[in-house]
C-alpha cells in the first residue's frame, strides 16, 4: 500500500505544473525534509520573499529592489554570483564562484548561510516597506 501511495504521488508530481523551483532540486517525491529552514524554504519554493510570488498573489510589482530584473530565485543567484566575482561579499556570504545552479549553492554550507541571510534581509526590507 505504501509503495502504491508513493507511486501515485510521483505520478501526480511528474504531471503537476506546480513546484517548478522544487523540481529543479529534486525530481523524486519523498518523506524526508529537504532542509527544514524557513528562509531556505523560501528559495526552495520560490515563495513569499520573492517579488514574482508577491506579484502573482498580491498584485505587487514583480521587480527586485535593485530594479534590474524580476525578483526570482534565479535573479538572487545571479546577484550573489556577481557579488562574489566582484569581491563584494562579506565572510558569511561566501559562495562557490563556479556554481551554476541553486541546487549546487544549497549543497554548500557557506553558500546556504549567504542565501539564508540574503532572504532574511529581503523579507525584512519588504516588511519595512509595508509598515
Provide a descriptive summary of the structure in words.
It is a single chain. The protein is mostly helical and 131 residues long. The protein has one domain. The protein is built from 7 helices and no strands. The longest helix is centred in the C-terminal third of the chain and has 22 residues, at 109-130. The model is unreliable at 90-95 (pLDDT under 50).
Number of strands: 0
What's the N-to-C terminus distance? Answer: 50 Å
Query: Average pLDDT, to the nearest integer?
Result: 74
- Poorly predicted ranges: 90-95
What's the total helix number? 7
SSE order in H/E notation?
HHHHHHH
Assign a percent range to the helix content.
Answer: 55-70%
- What Rg, in angstroms, do the CA atoms define? 16 Å
Summed up, the domain count is 1
**What is the 3D form?**
globular
Strand share of the residues? under 5%
Structural class label: mainly alpha
Sheet of most strands: none
Highlighted features:
131 residues, mainly alpha
Write the layout of secondary structure elements.
Layout: H1 2-15, H2 20-25, H3 38-45, H4 51-58, H5 73-85, H6 102-107, H7 109-130
Short description:
With 131 residues, the protein is an all-alpha fold.
